[in-house]
Amino acid sequence: MAISMYSASVPVFTRTLGQLAAWLDKAEAHAQAKKFDTSVYLAARLAPDMLPFTKQIQIACDAAKFGVARLAGVESPRFEDNETSFADLRERIRKTVAFVNSVPASAIDGTEDKDITVPRRDGNIVLKGEFYLKHYVQPNFYFHVTTAYALLRHNGVELGKGDFLGTLS
Amino acid sequence: MAISMYSASVPVFTRTLGQLAAWLDKAEAHAQAKKFDTSVYLAARLAPDMLPFTKQIQIACDAAKFGVARLAGVESPRFEDNETSFADLRERIRKTVAFVNSVPASAIDGTEDKDITVPRRDGNIVLKGEFYLKHYVQPNFYFHVTTAYALLRHNGVELGKGDFLGTLS
Questions:
Q1: Which among A82, A133, B6, B34 could bridge B108 via Cys, Cβ 3.0 to 4.6 Å?
Q2: Do A153 and B7 touch (CB under 8 A)?
Q3: Which residues of chain B neighbour A46 with C-beta distances below 8 Å?
Q4: Is A19 on the interface with B (CB under 8 A)?
């Protein structure tokens, strides 16, 4: 029993990335109804020195991608961070989900005590797999996903908690 | 091995609630420097139909409180949702941390398959303990904590990712 490293990572990320993709649909419908271009969302920020919407989605994807790749000890696909449209963002999410789903549970389970090297602005740090997942990857992932949600809400898109949590039954 | 239900709940919540309390200190310092009252933050919203700052903190605390109480099958302390100041919010966070820390690991470990009844606006739902923690409590907790962070950033408080993630070494 107990929660496996796999079940606390891949399904957590794919579930929420699926919600994120659905928010893009609602954002697109809102833009159409209000007659503005979806590109308006891409540069939206909550503060002048916060990252814009596109970057929030890129980093949310990367949190999942690098988290899974580092735990499993596999190479992660390189994304160019060149998304300039909703279609590009959808593709970024799709590629991320495809990658994390390609990693077998056996490569992630058992990595609780594995040393994970995490590049940080001020140098590498080394964290144990379980700490890395629970106190770095998960909060970082939810941080950027929630900020993307907040940006859409701030720009008038009708989303609710159900859109964030997804299906519960 | 594997992640225990306790380690994926209580320490996750107390760690991040500790960061949240520290953001209040920075927000207070910012208000003093800019000569406005901290009560201005309390009513701040990112959208007219989103919940204000005070409510974000109340719900973040409740996500932790009810999550832990329902998994452990213990009564949770009743909070009146009557916070009207930063001092009140600090006390709410303190009481929440004290409660979740009062629940022994033995009461939460092993609840992976326990049926948890979750009251929702449209009626009760029943989720298994592990699903409830990973796909309901954790995302809901991070949602409200991140929204509180976003509200402070939106109002000029100088916070960074380090303030969100906390100490990593």
A1: B6
A2: no
A3: 46, 150, 153-154
A4: no
Report the alpha-carbon distance of residue A95 to residue A80 in Å, rounded.
12
> So what's the ipTM on this one?
0.97
pLDDT in tens, A101-148: 999 999 999 999 999 999 988 899 999 999 999 999 999 999 999 999
With CB atoms and an 8 Å threshold, state whether A3 touches B8: yes
Tally of CA atoms within 13 A in the half-sphere of B43 that contains its CB: 3
Nearest to A19 by CA among B161, B119, B139: B139
- What is the 3-state secondary structure of chain B? CCECCCCCCHHHHHHHHHHHHHHHHHHHHHHHHHCCCCHHHHCCCCCCCCCCHHHHHHHHHHHHHHHHHHHHCCCCCCCCCCCCCHHHHHHHHHHHHHHHHHCCHHHHCCCCCCEEEEEECCEEEEEEHHHHHHHHHHHHHHHHHHHHHHHHHHCCCCCCHHHHHCCCC
Taking the Cβ of residue B142 and every Cβ of chain A, the question of whether any pair is shorter than 8 Å is answered with yes
Give A-chain residues touching B161 at CB under 8 angstroms: 140, 143
